[in-house]
Amino acid sequence: MNKIVSDYHLHSEFSGDSTQNIEEIVKEGIRLGLEEIALTDHLEYDIEGMTDNWILDVDRYAKRVFELREKYKKDIDLKFGVEVGVQPHTKDYLESVIKKYPFDFVIASSHAIDRVDLAFGEIQAGRTKDEVHNLYFEYVLQNIEKYNEFNVYGHIDFVTRYGGEKFRGLDYKKHFDIIDVILKKLIEKGKGIEVNTSGYRYREDRFYPCTDILKRYYELGGEILTIGSDSHIKDYMTMDFDRVYDFLESIGVKYISSFDKMQPSFKKIK
Ligand SMILES: [Zn+2]
Ligand SMILES: [Zn+2]
User: Fold this and answer.
1) What one-character DSSP code corresponds to residue 231?
2) Domain 6-268 falls in which CATH fold?
3) Nearest residue to 167 via CA among 140, 138, 136
4) Where are the domains of the chain?
5) Which ligand has its closest atom nearest to the C-alpha of 42?
6) d(CA 44, CA 107)
7) Number of H helices, E strands in the chain
């Protein structure tokens, strides 16, 4: 059993879809014996039907994270992070927000395509599974080409989560070409991917990305990896991380990444 180092994808009451008290997350991280945690609340912009509740008050969020960092500094290293919902047309606005604050860690995620949230089902309507998955990966690639202000791409193949049974499961071989272009582009730009264990909680029985993608990223020379639970309640923190550590070890990965002011360093998996 490996010692779990960190959880790098956590949502609190500052996210539109969570009511989890932020200080309780820090206390849970200490209780779990983690060296670091990264709070990564949602920063979303220009998505159809998004209510005011979804606007991240970054000033208030930053202030609270820095207070907690100071208060618990002897016990845990608290990272100031964010999960940015990227779309090609929102690059200028979102990158200006990221540059304005001293973030330690930024996850870029594709939650929407052309302003429509993948969870709504509109994207899937009238399309086959392959078409939806291909459209999603093309969109991810466009985002990676455009954006620079991020460290890892979030849950890179989680498109399989939405649209119902028909759209579940990734046929890696069918999308191999575009996934290879995506992974090579990330490596060329010095960016990483996250391993996100929320798939186990969404009845997918796997982490994102799938083992084929993770293996390929490592084969191609990718070294930047973080592991996140994507928990919106503290009880899910580090859930199923043992499966990720076991898999990483089986393919020869020895380090996971840590971030300070968006600069990576590496921690040996023990
Ligand atoms: Zn996400
Ligand atoms: Zn998330």
Assistant:
1) B
2) TIM Barrel (3.20.20)
3) 136
4) 6-268
5) 2
6) 12
7) 7, 11
Distance, in Å, from the CA atom of 24 to the CA atom of 202, rounded to the nearest integer, reads 24
Question: How many whole angstroms from 157 Cα to the centroid of ligand 2?
Answer: 14
Whether residue 108 contacts residue 150, with contact meaning beta carbons closer than 8 Å, is answered with yes
Integer CA distances (angstroms), 85 to 130, 150, 202, 220, in order? 23, 11, 20, 26
CA of 45 to the centre of ligand 2 (A): 15
Q: What spacing in Å lies between the alpha carbon of 102 and ligand 2's midpoint?
A: 20
Ligand 2 centroid, distance to 20 Cα (angstroms): 13
Helix H or strand E segment including 111: none
**Neighbour tally for 49: CB within 10 Å:** 9
Q: What is the pLDDT along the chain (270 residues), one digit of tens a residue?
A: 789 999 999 999 999 999 999 999 999 999 999 999 999 999 999 999 998 889 999 999 999 999 999 999 999 999 999 999 999 999 999 999 999 999 999 999 999 999 999 999 999 999 999 999 999 999 999 999 999 999 999 999 999 999 999 999 999 999 999 999 999 999 999 999 999 999 999 889 999 999 999 999 999 999 999 999 999 999 999 999 999 999 999 999 999 999 999 999 999 998
Query: What spacing in Å lies between the alpha carbon of 155 and ligand 1's midpoint?
Result: 7
CA of 11 to the centre of ligand 2 (A): 6
